[in-house]
Design a protein that fits this description.
The chain is mainly alpha-helical. It has 14 helices and three strands.
Length: 388
């Protein structure tokens, strides 16, 4: 349902992209549609892979993500002043290595939280196998994308809490993260060229909490247009029906990322509050199914994996909504399966496919146990009849 909605909405939200890049509506529409269809094919293929395979490959996937993040730092394509994208050789596609790194870290942490469960009281074990991998991933993502680095830390924090890692180690890691970030800010103040993105972070925070009357409206154009779009979608006496209707949005012509980072604002302008509620409920339903699938699995690795993927999805959704409504500084996080995200949609589909695979294995286990119980009952009946 989210995929079908994205096909319709993205076609409506891309006029500024058409003007800026000189591309046709039909080209962008079919590109998004084909990428989405391929994503669902990938999802189907991934759901056939046994969960234990991901457990065995967890270290390899994590090490590969570290290598890719390092390559992105030096060879990545610059987008909005940040090196976030790595070109795939021999094909006309690039991808955000942070998307792969988030998923790889979740798989790796799920494995380590199960494997090191008996050693949680030993700081050296927890640091080496749990805290350090989270810290490395955050550090490599941080220079180009602060919000994704924070989300990685948040996902790791929630998974450690669920696994009952001692709070003293979690608190120590949080303090170290704050100290490390403060050190980076200090270094940037002395040598601004070392971390050029720090000034961007500072300016966005200032715009978020600054006085609107003294601020240049041009500097806060994206957020102001997003709020205006939400207002346009309201139900009033002059406009008794919520939203402007599909294709009738006005502010999408002035919001540079209406099809991605400000998707929620563009959605409310055209669909109104009812459509926003529908989308929120779809995500909540999906999140509930992820948690239910994880908790129902007898395999602890699968439990952490499903819950971690659910947290990853909902954190992205929440950030997109909070940015669109000016409840947090502007940052780039897509709405999973809804935004026009290119190859990022494939990583979302891979993640969903993993959870579907966990659910499939539960269904097979349930059926086999039911058959086993039925066979036992038949044998029991035959024995009772023979005795009679």
């Amino acid at each position: 349902m989210l995929g079908l909605l994205s096909v319709i909405s993205v076609f409506s939200f891309i006029p500024i992209l058409v003007k800026a890049k000189g591309l046709s509506y039909s080209y962008l529409f079919f590109k998004h549609l084909i990428l989405l269809i391929l994503g669902f094919v990938i999802m189907y293929g991934i759901h056939k892979v046994p969960t234990k395979v991901f457990s065995k490959l967890s270290k390899l996937l994590f090490y590969a993500s570290v290598v890719l993040l390092v390559l992105t730092m030096f060879l990545g394509e610059s987008v909005n002043g940040a090196d976030r994208w790595l070109k795939i050789p021999f094909v006309p596609f690039s991808f955000q290595t942070s998307d792969f790194a988030k998923l790889a870290l979740i798989i790796y942490l799920s494995r380590q939280l199960v494997k090191r469960k008996k050693d949680f009281q030993k700081f050296d074990i927890v640091f080496k196998h749990i805290l350090l991998p989270v810290g490395i991933t955050m550090f490599l993502i941080l220079p180009s994308n602060l919000s994704t680095a924070v989300l990685v830390g948040f996902i790791g924090f929630v998974m450690m809490v669920l696994a009952k890692v001692p709070w003293k180690w979690i608190g120590a890691s949080f303090g170290a993260a704050v100290a490390g970030f403060s050190l980076l800010l200090l270094i940037s103040s002395v040598a601004p060229e070392a971390l050029p993105r720090v000034e961007t972070w500072r300016s966005r925070i200032v715009k978020m909490f600054g006085d609107e009357e003294t601020m240049n409206p041009q500097e806060n154009m994206q957020v102001n247009n997003a709020l205006a779009a939400i207002k346009n979608g309201a139900m009033t006496a002059d406009s008794p029906f919520p939203g402007k209707g599909p294709g009738n949005g006005v502010l999408k012509h002035y919001i540079p990322e209406a099809y991605a980072d400000f998707y929620f604002a563009a959605l409310i302008e055209e669909g109104g509050l009812p459509m926003a509620i529908v989308v929120i409920m779809l995500y909540m339903w999906l999140f509930f199914r992820f948690i239910k699938t994880g908790l129902a699995s007898p395999n602890e690795f699968a439990t952490y994996l499903a819950v971690g993927i659910g947290i990853m999805m909902m954190s992205q959704v929440m950030v997109n909504m909070l940015v669109s409504t000016k409840l947090m500084p502007v940052t780039g996080q897509n709405m999973p399966l809804l935004s026009m995200g290119g190859t990022s949609a494939w990583f979302t589909c891979i993640a969903f496919g993993i959870v579907l695979g966990i659910s499939r294995e539960q269904e097979k286990t349930t059926k086999s146990s039911s058959k086993s119980d039925s066979t036992k009952n038949e044998i029991k009946t035959d024995i009772e009849n023979a005795i009679a």
